[in-house]
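Our consortium's second objective concerns turning raw sequence data into structural hypotheses that experimental partners can test. To show how far this objective has progressed, the report includes one record in full. It was chosen at random from the queue rather than selected for favorable results. The single chain below, 512 residues long, was entered without modification.
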Amino acid sequence: MSATLLRTPQPSQAETRTPAPPRRLAQIGAGRGGGGERRGPMRPVTLAPSRARLTGWTLAMIFRAADAGALALAALGAAWLASPAMDAAALTPFAAAALTLVWSLSALRAYAFVQGEALRRHLVRVAAGFGLAALVLEVLLGGFRPTSVTPAQLGAWLGASFLGLFLLHGLWWANVRRWRAMGRLTPNIVVVGATPSAEKLIRAAIASGEAAVLGVFDDRAGRIAADIAGVPVLGDTAALMRHRIMPCIDKVVIAVPTRAHSRIEELIARLSALPNEVTLFVDQGAAGRAAALSRIAEAPLAPVSGAPSDERRALVKRAADLLLGSLALILGLPLMLALAAAIKLDSPGPVFFRQRRHGFNNEEILVWKLRSMRADCADESGVRQVACGDARVTRVGRFIRRTSLDELPQLVNVLRGEMSLVGPRPHAVGMRTGATESAKLVAGYAHRHRMKPGMTGWAAVNGSRGPVDTAEAVRRRVVLDIEYIERQSLGLDLKIMLATIPCLLGDSRTVR
């Protein structure tokens, strides 16, 4: 871990302000420094947090899987009609036809959903995919006709599949159009530097629709125009660090002339405190601008040669969260009901405790827990961390905190997509270590927010549990969290989940 990450920074007064709660994202202003309601030409009506952004590769994989599932169901039905015994000879022709059909649709970019493409044109792609699949099957089979399936049965399956995929792709097309209108398919970016390169990039984004530039930040904000190509100048880089739209921003693009080496190095060093991805834009003419914009925007729903590993990991991680989280919630519901009754009998007050904590990209989320403290002593701000023998903790609270059963309601946060089963533990907004805000003790503290927070994590199974009541404890937590983010995989997540219960039950020293 670098010394830069572990040094103690000296924050400015502007940097100590926290972003707005998620419920206000739709009303966030765009004035200089974060106020007002100045809206640029690309800003959607409602700003969605970056964790809710959909990528083209992920959607294409989901659509392919849904199409393959529909074709498989149709094939099973047709094979059963052909041979109720469901032998391999009856299934093979339908399986081969289904695989060929999905391949042909991919080859003709039927999963690209090109921006601005009309429904009629997209359905023509689907029809052409069926034609290509039929041609390929004819060539591959070479006139061979399986005896277990009659031409009428195969034709009936093709007809049902044709109609089913037409309906499915009409649904996909309508959803893609709606998601684009909501801004969920268009990456949100902000530009640092009110330069000619920034203006060229903004105009290219407006023309292509591949990215939404929500604002420009420049340290000369008080001496330059109020907008660049219609996109408002929101303030200087200090305003960028605290601006309320940052949880909705996917990338921060530096558009400073490449000859300004010292300025670029200064900006990269300053912006490295943000969890958002930072990109350097180099203007290389019209072709270069288009290519750079495509890289910045990741060309939503455009085919990609080789899926980016982070998208693949994110899709697998989300699928595991939904599957295992749903199962855990179903199995844990009776236990939560019993604990809720115990909490009500033990002390007056609500069953649940809600607290604002930092999520992905510094987004503020409401995290749910079973109440473990007296209702009149609940600390929603997180300023006062729990200490050994804390009088605020109830009798039932001591048990559910020691076993971490108070965290069970966070399964709802997982299913909502605000948290993951495994990740850095979410810290309360404004949490303090002694008299100092914990986030100010480590320069790279916000880097732990480059992934969704988790119910358990690498830090938890490596001894960093409970309160972080010293500067060294904060540094160790951040180091372990960033180590997890760099190593994250499904195998590591399963290992952490399996190690969590023994770690919790075998640790009687940590205050929880």
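The partners drew two points from this record. The chain has three domains: 3-53+186-297, 57-182, 310-505. The two ends are 28 Å apart (CA to CA). Both points have been shared with the crystallography group to help prioritize constructs.
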